[in-house]
Task: inverse folding
């Protein structure tokens, strides 16, 4: 087999492959044996006729078609291995020359992962954040628990901070006067002072009474989550239908026993401290890993195959669609809410997708250089633990599906590789 390699661009290679006689003879024999199993020849059981007789009696067109298909597969696979390529998409294969069973030349244009130039990742350094839980953190959790347990008493007075009001509201664009999607609600309970709405909204509700309607204009923050609303001036019309005073329970041992298996407030605070410490540590570890991967990606050089980036964008959109379905919102409604077309959304997510793909490729290269693998025993143990979390047989079978098993295996390899990087990069402080 003779291969000529041409680099069309940093991520696309064109191979011109000429088959040798040994491969062609092997392919022909394989195809004839396959056809012999299907042919009924007088005096011979299926698969037992001499190949020369099979060839004389075979449909010429079928024989040549199967020969070419088998030869193409073998040539391409052998060329990928010989040239040490990492394809990311199906190749575009062209038949250049074919003399039945003696001469075959093909071209294969394929998108690949090019050379990955890693930094000296063993010298990357990143200090870990020191985690602490303050008395204020604990107090805030306790206040949330007291608020949830509070008795609500409807009052006929002006609303004040600490009250829960039930409101109907709608927003319209200050310039066009058109309704703003997502800026409306009916019978919405709002705790004044919770700062759950955009700045200025709750302050305008303070002082309102039952049945009162008020209009005011607010500007959405420039970093608001919905791009279409960023810096947008919106006129809100709000009607208060209920004002409720919250009678929070006293913070004593009885309250502690009511919200959990605690005998004293001290026990409650100790448990909250433990939970907050765990949550903060988990968040800090996640942030640390992400920052370390960003550092690795920033210092890694690799040309990104377009198909890999597009696949990552498609996965992102698929996850968003799934989350929207849970919330009862369509993809088109979501795009309209953001004021975007699907192409604009894809363009917006491309930078993040490229970064994730680059980090993934860099991490994969680190795993190769470090010889990191997931053993069959490790994988089986992990799968058993996962299955143990589900009593539903359907969910257990779902885990065993090849695509899900591959995803789990990939996650395990990523986790081990990140742990190796963390070991190199973390510094005690």
Result:
């Amino acid at each position: 087999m003779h291969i000529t390699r041409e680099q069309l661009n940093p991520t696309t290679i064109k191979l011109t492959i000429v088959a040798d006689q040994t491969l062609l003879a092997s392919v022909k024999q394989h195809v004839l044996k396959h056809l012999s199993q299907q042919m009924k020849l007088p005096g011979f059981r299926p698969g037992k006729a001499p190949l020369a007789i099979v060839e004389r009696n075979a449909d010429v067109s079928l024989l040549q078609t199967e020969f070419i298909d088998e030869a193409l597969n073998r040539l391409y696979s052998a060329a990928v291995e010989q040239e040490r390529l990492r394809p990311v998409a199906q190749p575009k294969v062209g038949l250049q020359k074919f003399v039945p069973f003696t001469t075959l030349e093909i071209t294969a244009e394929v998108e690949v992962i090019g050379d990955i130039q890693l930094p000296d990742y063993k010298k990357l350094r990143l200090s870990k954040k020191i985690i602490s839980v303050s008395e204020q953190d604990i107090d805030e959790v306790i206040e949330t628990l007291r608020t949830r347990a509070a008795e609500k008493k409807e009052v006929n007075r002006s609303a004040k901070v600490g009250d829960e009001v039930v409101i109907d509201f709608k927003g319209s664009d200050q310039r066009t006067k058109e309704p703003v999607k997502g800026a409306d609600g009916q019978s919405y309970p709002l705790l004044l002072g919770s700062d759950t709405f955009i700045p200025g909204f709750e302050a305008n509700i303070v002082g309102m009474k039952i049945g009162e309607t008020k209009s005011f204009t607010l500007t959405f923050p420039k970093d608001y989550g919905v791009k279409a609303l960023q810096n947008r001036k919106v006129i809100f019309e709000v009607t208060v239908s209920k004002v409720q005073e919250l009678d929070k329970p006293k913070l004593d041992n009885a309250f502690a026993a009511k919200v959990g298996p605690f005998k004293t407030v001290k026990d409650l605070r100790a448990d909250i401290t433990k939970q907050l410490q765990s949550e903060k540590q988990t968040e800090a570890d996640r942030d640390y890993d992400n920052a370390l991967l960003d550092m690795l990606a920033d210092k890694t050089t690799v040309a990104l195959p377009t198909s890999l980036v597009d696949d990552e964008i498609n996965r992102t959109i698929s996850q968003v669609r799934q989350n929207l379905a849970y919330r009862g919102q369509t993809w088109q409604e979501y795009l309209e809410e953001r004021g975007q077309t699907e192409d604009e959304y894809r363009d917006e997510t491309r930078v993040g997708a490229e970064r994730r793909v680059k980090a993934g490729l860099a991490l994969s290269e680190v795993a190769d250089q470090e010889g990191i693998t997931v053993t069959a025993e490790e994988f089986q143990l992990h799968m058993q633990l996962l299955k143990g979390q589900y009593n539903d047989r359907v969910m257990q079978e779902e885990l065993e599906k090849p695509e899900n098993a591959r995803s789990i295996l990939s996650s395990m390899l990523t986790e081990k590789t990140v742990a190796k990087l963390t070991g190199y990069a973390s510094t005690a402080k």
In short: The two ends are 59 Å apart (CA to CA). The chain has a mean pLDDT of 92.
